[in-house]
């Protein structure tokens, strides 16, 4: 009967609502009727009540499983089945009807406490406590109502009826409700068919020996076999076995067999009480064990799935992932995925157990260790920054640090997660873009933007220190002929060579820039005397004048240089203009020379002469 009801409940979604409702009503009425008749007929000889009332457990279990939308159907079925069952069992009509009503009340009270709305589940140990509270409330309500009915209508013993009916219904609820609820759960028995057959056979044999043949008080012996089922075969199997065991004990005892049969030492009332105690004891021992085992296995399965998911996510991640155990300032690597191993170089064996800080550039180590310590101490929720490796070539990583849940109960045993993203290419691209924005693409020298910035810094420093900077404005003489005769590719070779020679001749603190075409500027931050700037200019003129090999021939270019010494309060535009004027003077005086600009004259090779006035627009270059 329970198997058919379970099948009906599981297939309910695939059928129409009307078909499910009719099937549920018919099954519940028949089940309640048959169980009520059986309980009355199997009552121990001399007992006024049955040992237990399985119809109550069936009604409660069905009402709890189907949910609130079909509970009225179950309650109506309990009413009909109980009335017909009591009548067929030989009870008076008024008693049969009232007992049926009280059965409905019992089911309603129990289900109300067992679940509030959605279908009940029986999957955790806490459910046993909830079931016990609901059963006590429901069976006590029924016991009081039944005892009052018997006392008022038939002058029965109120206390005797109360103490007889209440435990019989409580025992039935504790036995049948878990069996009905377990029909909705998965069972391990199907995966262990041979073991299940062996255990069921052994339980049947032990039950027959103890309760069918023997008379010794060995009611505890089947418990060991049932515990085997609770540990190995799952909740559904053991609840059905408990139900079957108590049914068998009831049948055998009613037939006069076993230690619970009515005899010289056992009255009918005592036999009823003993069977009830037997049923409740087995339920309260076996069901918590079965649920504990099930919870443990489900927890282990979840942990295993979580671990598998973590391993898959950790190992197969596109990010570099590390687990560190920080202790005494050492960030010991305990796990590393392949991406992190490839990023840091070497092998996994070399990386595991090493100090991650040692894998970083020396300038990065202290800050990284301090950041990890802050995260572990809880003063920081996390840390994210770019760090550089210690290898060659240097690789840059964006690192994110967070604390993992404690792997043990030791508060000092902390694991730290580090995620790494290789940003070397991005940094290189940024540096390249920055270089292109501030440097000449042909020669690699500073461009106008960077020169203006450097010149502003130098002038600001000069105003504070009083040391004047020198500015050299350089222009190649007759460079146009190189482009016209040898082509622009040759001109580019010449410009790059000139740039290299200017860099070689300038000081490390000087800025060499290309303004465009064949114009260059050298900025010297501190030049106490014009002669110093002139000496540098003359060295550069001599260096550039050396032949430059272009293809199969040597090309000789000359350099005209205008030198200006920044006076206090000078501005950038003024310095460039004055240096440009001095450079034009050098060209006018014969090219291939340097001229120092003064307020009223320009000096070539140290000799003073009035500077010619050469308009910039008509100057020959």
TrEMBL record:
Localization annotation: Cell membrane
Membrane association type: Multi-pass membrane protein
EC number assigned by the record: 2.7.7.65
Molecular function in Gene Ontology: diguanylate cyclase activity
Enzyme class of the recorded protein, top EC level: transferase
Name of the protein: Diguanylate cyclase domain-containing protein
Domain of life, source organism: Bacteria
InterPro entries referenced in this protein's UniProt entry, alphabetically: Biofilm_reg_signaling (IPR052155), GGDEF_dom (IPR000160), MASE1 (IPR007895), Nucleotide_cyclase (IPR029787), PAS (IPR000014), PAS-like_dom_sf (IPR035965), PAS_4 (IPR013656), Rev_trsase/Diguanyl_cyclase (IPR043128)
Residue intervals of the GGDEF domain: 467-599
Cell membrane found in the keyword field: yes
Organism encoding this protein: Aquipuribacter hungaricus
């Amino acid at each position: 009967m329970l198997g058919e009801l379970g099948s009906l409940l599981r297939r309910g979604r695939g059928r129409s609502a009307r078909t499910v409702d009719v099937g549920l009503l018919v099954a519940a009425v028949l089940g309640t009727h048959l169980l009520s008749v059986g309980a009355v007929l199997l009552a121990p000889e001399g007992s006024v009540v049955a040992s237990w009332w399985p119809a109550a457990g069936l009604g409660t279990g069905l009402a709890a499983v189907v949910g609130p939308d079909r509970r009225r159907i179950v309650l109506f079925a309990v009413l009909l089945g109980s009335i017909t069952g009591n009548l067929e069992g030989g009870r008076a009509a008024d008693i049969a009807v009232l007992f049926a009503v009280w059965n409905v009340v019992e089911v309603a009270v129990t289900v109300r406490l067992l679940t509030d709305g959605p279908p009940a589940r029986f999957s955790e140990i806490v459910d046993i406590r909830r079931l016990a509270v609901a059963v006590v409330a429901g069976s006590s309500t029924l016991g009081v109502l039944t005892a009052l009915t018997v006392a008022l209508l038939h002058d029965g013993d109120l206390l005797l009826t109360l103490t007889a009916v209440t435990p019989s219904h409580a025992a039935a609820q504790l036995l049948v409700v878990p069996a009905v609820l377990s029909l909705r759960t998965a069972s391990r028995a199907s995966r262990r068919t041979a073991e299940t057959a062996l255990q069921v056979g052994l339980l049947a044999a032990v039950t027959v020996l103890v309760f069918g043949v023997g008379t010794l008080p060995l009611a505890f012996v089947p418990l060991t076999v049932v515990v085997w089922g609770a540990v190995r075969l799952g909740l559904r199997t053991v609840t059905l076995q408990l139900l079957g065991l108590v049914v068998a004990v009831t049948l055998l005892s009613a037939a006069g067999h076993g230690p619970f049969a009515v005899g010289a030492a056992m009255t009918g009332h005592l036999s009823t009480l003993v069977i009830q105690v037997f049923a409740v004891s087995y339920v309260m021992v076996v069901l918590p064990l079965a649920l504990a085992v099930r919870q443990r296995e489900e927890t282990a399965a979840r942990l295993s799935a979580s671990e598998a998911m973590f391993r898959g996510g950790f190992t197969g991640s596109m990010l570099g992932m590390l687990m560190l155990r920080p202790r005494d300032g050492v960030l010991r690597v305990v796990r590393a995925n392949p991406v992190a191993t490839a990023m840091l170089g070497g092998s996994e064996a070399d990386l595991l157990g090493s100090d991650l800080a040692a894998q970083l550039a020396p300038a990065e180590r202290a800050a990284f260790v301090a950041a990890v310590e802050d995260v572990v101490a809880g003063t920081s929720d996390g840390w994210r920054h770019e760090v550089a490796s210690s290898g060659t070539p240097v690789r840059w990583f964006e690192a994110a640090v967070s604390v993992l849940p404690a792997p043990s109960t030791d508060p000092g045993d902390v694991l730290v997660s580090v995620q790494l993203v290789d940003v070397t290419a991005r940094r290189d691209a940024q540096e390249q873009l920055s270089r292109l924005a501030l440097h000449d693409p042909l020669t690699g020298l500073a461009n106008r933007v960077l020169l203006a910035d450097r010149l502003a810094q130098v002038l600001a420093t000069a105003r504070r220190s009083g040391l004047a900077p020198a500015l050299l404005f350089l222009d190649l003489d007759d460079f146009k002929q190189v482009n016209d005769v040898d082509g622009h590719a040759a001109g580019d070779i010449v410009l790059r060579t000139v740039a290299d020679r200017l860099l070689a001749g300038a000081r490390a603190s000087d800025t060499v820039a290309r303004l465009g075409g064949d114009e260059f500027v050298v900025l010297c931050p501190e030049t106490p005397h014009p002669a110093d700037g002139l000496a540098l200019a003359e060295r550069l003129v001599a260096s550039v004048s050396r032949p430059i090999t272009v293809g199969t021939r040597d090309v000789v270019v000359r350099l005209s240089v205008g030198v200006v010494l920044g006076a206090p309060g000078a501005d950038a535009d003024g310095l460039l203009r004055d240096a440009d004027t001095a450079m034009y003077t050098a060209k006018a005086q014969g090219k291939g020379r340097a001229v120092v600009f003064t307020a009223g004259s320009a000096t070539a090779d140290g000799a003073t002469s009035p500077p010619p006035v050469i308009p910039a627009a008509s100057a020959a270059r």
